[in-house]
Each structure stands twice: as structure tokens, then as C-alpha cells.
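Appendix B. Chain record.
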Amino acid sequence: MIPRIIGIRHHSPACARLVAHAIAQDRPAAVLIEGPSDFNPRLPELLLPHRLPIALYSYAHDGAGAARCWFPLTGYSPEWVALTQGHTSGAVVRFIDLPHWQYRALPDHERRMAPANQPPGLPGEQRSHYRRVTQALAARLHCDGDHALWDHLFEAQSLASPPDFDALAERLDTYFHDLRGDPTLHTTAQDDAREACMARWVAWAMHRFPGRNVLVVCGGWHKRAIESLWPTLAATEELASPTPSDPLLHGAYLVPYEYRQLEALSGYAAGMQSPQYYQWLAEGGAGAACAQAAQAIVQRLRARQVPASTADVVAFHTTLTALARLRGHAEPLRVDILDAAQSAFVKEALDAPAPWAGHQVLSTQDHPALREALLALTGDARGELAGDTPLPPLVADVRQRLLACGLTLPSAPTTHTLDRRRAQDTLAAQTLWQLRLIGAEGVELTSINAPLSARHLPQALLFEEHWRLHDNPRWLPSLIEAAVHGATLIDAARACLLARLDAPIATAPAASPPSAAAMAQCLTDAVRAGFFDLGEELASRLAHSIHTVHDHGALAQAALTLLDVALAGFWGQDTRPVMLSALSAMGDRLLWLLDGLDAALPTPGHAGAPAPAGSPTLDADVAAVRALAGLLRLSEAQAIAGWQASFTLDSLLRLARAPGRPPALRGAAAGLALTQAHRYAPGTALRGTELIALTRAVPPRDQLGDYLYGLFAITRATLKTTPGLVEAVHATLAQLSHDDFLVALPALRGAFAWFPPRERGDIAARVGALLGLTAPERTRLTQLSQGDNHYLRARAAEAQALAWARDCGLLTSVTDEQLT
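C-alpha cells predicted for this chain:
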């Protein structure tokens, strides 16, 4: 006796009916199904009272991240019929394929790159045979695509008697025989491994049940290979169900599924088109399915305001009947219905074939009538798991947390606004942030702002959060994946947060270390998620990664972001426990990086000519000193473990006095040392006289503007507290030649841009006095001219300057916008 092997197409009603007929007729002792064999010990989970569709979701975690796949089951899936009716008939039911986490779980980037018109598993060389066979059959039978070809060959046939089923089985055998060809030629290592596994299960069943019927339900692609392999194998013992080495890293769970996920035109390459239509086809046959589909299309078109007049509807019904007769179909099939809809409801020429003729993803660019017709046949059915279906403990914990916060995930996206200033919103906001940290789908932070705030707040302190919640199909799978990080939401979110600070390990050389901005974001996320006790652990992780940061400007900006939160707190929450250790590590790294900025390693903007005011280089130097200033301010209020304020103060003096340092850094260090003079030992602080001497020593043509830019960025008050500084700068500039002064002028303008207009006027008045101008002359010097004539003269001067710049090659053209 040989086993009966039925090659099927997944989600085919005709194949499902054939499987049901075979079980009822043969009463097999064993029913073997192409499905993940690691789920065999948990088959009773599938027999719980679920509402279909559901899917067996498999996942795998490795150094590159999570990979995943789905094994959907509908009421008309041949695998589901084999499972349920085989169990009802008393047969031994087993899944016989390799675990999905061993071969089917693909990382997201690979899934996005996989061609949508190729069934998964084979590369292009082997799959080309598959395409050649289907294309040749479609051309011979005048079918538009392989979906229409399948319906024409199999779904259109009547299955009213045993001979009808025998004829269907014969056609399927012939079709799949030609589709695969020689299994030894059209295969891959993956196919070989899977087919060997399935063949061993068949050999075991034949040994276990001698003289009795054995039914095998597998993808038609594998039928020929299994038929030739199983007689060559000896398997006297039932194969052990594979188990992952770590169930948290690899595994499978049941999840609810939706027809729109199963729809092939949504991007699921192994799915099918129009699942709702095939549900109607399985329940009532082609005639009833046609009537329901036509009604659904018209109703959806009119509900979406797509033109569908009574005359159009009449033409629609007339055309679909005529097309069915023309194509030799006893009842209109899916392609007849859709082609008739295109003929009746589309009034203009189309730039591309109808979506159902190929495999492209349905998009908003498709004609509205065609799009709505397809969506009508897709359906909106959604499965639901039985209440006692096993799931990771994280799922139950998340449900309890959401319930405690009064949050739900509605079917339509809904916006929730939470205010961090309100104590009653704190728990809900922290829960949503923790869900965001674990990557839960369906929870999206859309914006953060501070409406009607009295002052401009840093981004990290904005208090109003806008969240969009939606019962996303990926909600449950994403929680299952996140279960690898912990059994509760708090544990999983903590682990995900800490992992973001980990430097790449040797086994993952392609991974990039966290940037300074990512480090700061990690700590501010910890605050918003309520993890105020993670300070030491975050600092420990950061200490291992921070040595990879070499951009002192980026690190300074990150430190400034954290200082905003550490100094101000977070709306009633003391953030210093989570911030201080990390800030200490950042401060140490900043000092180390600043020590590397010297004349031997010039940075762009400091060599040859002064850097433009506000350039990234200048701002990086200034930001670094500002970050050190914030740390010094913070350390006055509370001691920072591991942070030596005295060493920082000494470093500032050393940087200010070192002529080989970048001028903006020297100026900023001098300004900060001046403001912190009270913290130095007597006789060691930087005084005004020394500051004047340092300023006079700066090369005026190339560096003075940058030096003053750094100085004034830290302290503008120095011009008042050190009266001789204006005189020193004036005397230095007075010694410059005309050309040298023009070179230095842009950087000087940038430096004095730190002063508001009133203070700039005071400085101008002091310079006027140094020039010996009388009081009326000083007033005219500091007062803006008014009137139309002055404005026109200024416009003319500006136009002339831009024209000169163009002539010198500094501008390629002078546009009206530039002149304006």
C-alpha cells in the first residue's frame, strides 16, 4: 500500500473539498499536513473554539534582529480541513514540515526585497521553470494571470459526485507534475531539507500503520519529491518534534489574522487574492459567490462615492454573464466579476493592466473603481483566539496595564492627548512609552508640544504628548516578539532601553555603535517611561559605548539635552538619579575630546582663515564648554559621583591659556573660567587683567573673531565686568591694515551678534568715545537712518555688492529673491 499524497494550493476551496472527501472516503489512520512540526505537541491549541482566520506565527531572534512569518488558516484552507476533519475522524494528525523559525522566518529587509510575484522558497533560476509553466498554460487557455488560470482549471469545476473528485485529483496531479518538473533539477537546499523531513514522516506513518490508509496534504510543489523520497527512507520511530534551544529566541504562537493580511495584493507574497470571495465560494458555490460579490462591489462603490449608476450596474451584470459564457464557465468566476466591473465602472483609459492580472501591491494610485471592487472581495473578516489560548505572559501583563490606565486599542486609529503636568496622566503616558520602547505595533507617538507655554521649552521638556492608538494586525505578534526581553512590560521595556546603549560586539561587526544623540534620546526616553531608578545601569552601558563617540559637538548637544532635564526636573519628577552618572561619563569624554583639539590637528574653519560665525565647528566648541558649565552648575547643587569639578576647572584654565587650541574653544573656556572664579583656590583664578592679556595675544586677523565668539557665547557680561577689554580689542583692531580688517570683519560681526541691540549700542558708544567723537556724533553713529531715501540707497548698495560678488565668482547669479 502507498500513501495518498494530495498536492494542494494553499487557501484553495477546491483543494479543501478534495481533502475533506478523501478523509470521508478513505478513513485514513494518519493525516500528515505540511505545517511546522515543532507545533505537534501543541496541536490541541489549534482545536480550541477560535474564530477564523487565525495564523500560526513563528519568530526568530538573532544578532541582526527579529525575523518572522505567518501560517494563516481559514475555514477553506486545505490544511485546516485536514486538521479538523482528520481529528474528528479519529486519525493521528501531525504537522510534518521543518519549524518555520528554521527556514521561513525572514528579516524585514529581506521580505521587502523579495519579488511579490514569486512564491517563497526558490531563487529566480529555479523559480523560472515555475513561471514558464504557468505563463504557457495561461497563454494557451487565454487566462490573464496565474490566479485566473487556477480558478479556470480547478475552482470552476463542479464537485457533485465521486468521479468529479477523482477528476479534480487527476488534474491537480498533472498540473503540479508539470509545475515542478524534475525535483532534482528544480530545487534548493532549503527545499531538499524540508522535503526530506516530510518524507521521513511519511515513511514513519507507513511503518506505524501497515495496511491502513495514510493521507498526506502538502503543497503541490513538493508532491513529486516526497513521492520519490519516502520509499527510500526507514523511519521506525516517530520523529521528535524540534524544540528551540531558547523558547524566547525562537518559537511559535497562535495569533488572530485578517483577510486583508491574507490578501496577496496587500504585499503578502504567499497569500491569495480576494479571500472573502473564496469564503463565499467555499460556502455556497460559484453561483452564490457571484451574486454576493456583485452586490458587495456595487454597495462599496456607492458607499465610497465612486460613480455607479443604475445603468452601470445593469451593464455590470450583463457583462459578467457574457464573459463567463465566453470563457466557458458555468458560473461567473472571480476574474469574470472583476473584468466586468472594470468594463462597467471605468470610463477612461488606464495606464496599466488591472491589479488582479498581476502581482503588484494595490495602492492609492490604482483607479478608485478597481480598488474598491478588489477591497469588496477582500473582506474585513478578522479572527479571534479562544480565551484560553496560550500566549507569553507579557501579553497578559500588557492587557492589565492598559486596563489599569483606561486605555483601549480601537479598530479605527484614535488620538489620545496626555499632559505630563497632570498626575492622572502619568501612568498612562509611562505605559505608552514602555510599549513604544518594545516596538509594540498600534501605539504611535505623533507629536510632542507645549501649547500656550510662557517660554520656549527644550524638546526634552515638552509636556503635551499626542498618541495614536490602533488595533494593528501586528499588535499581538509584536508583543510576542518582545517577550524575548521580559515577562512583564516593565522588564521588557527596560531590557530594550538598555540594549540601545550596548556597543556592537564582535559577532555583529556590521552593527553601528549608538551615536551621542541616540544616547541622549535613550536617557530622555527612560525619564518619559518612568525608569528613574536606572541611572547606574544606564551609565554602566553608556560607559562601554561612549568611547566610540568622537564628535565633541554632537556629544555636547546630547549632554545639553540631558542637562535641561536634570536641572529642571520633569514635571514634578526628580530626574537627577537617572541623569547624573551618565552626565558624568559624558563630561569626562568631552574633556578627553577637547584635549585632542590642538594646532597639530586643525579642525575645518580654524586653519588659514576665521570660521564663519555660527559654523558647526565654532558651535561645537562653544556647546562643549556650555555642557561643562551645566555640569559645574549641577555639581554645586548636588555632588556627582565620579565627577571632579576641580579637575574640570583646572582644565578650563589650561584650555584658555593654551595658544595652540582652537580660538573659539579658548575664548569659551576663558569666559567660563572667569564666571567660575569663586570656585578656584586663591591666586589661581583667571582675572580680568589676564583675560585682557590673553585677548591681546590672539592673532587678530585670523582668530580674534572666533575667540570673541566663544567668549561672548559664554558670558556677555565680561565687557562690563572687565572695562579694559573693549579698549584692548579696539587697540588691536586699530593696528590692522585695511585688507586684514576686512578679512577679520565677518567673524567679528558673528561674535558681537551675541549681544542684543541695546547692548550693541552701548558698545558702539564706548568705541565712539575711544575714537574721540562728540556726543552728537556718537548718537548719529548708533542711530539707524530712517526714510524712503535711506531705504532706496541701502537697496542700491546691496545690489551693487551682490553684483560684485557675482563678478568675482562668489555667486553664480543674482536673483530677485536675493535682491529682496
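Further analysis of this model is presented in Appendix C.
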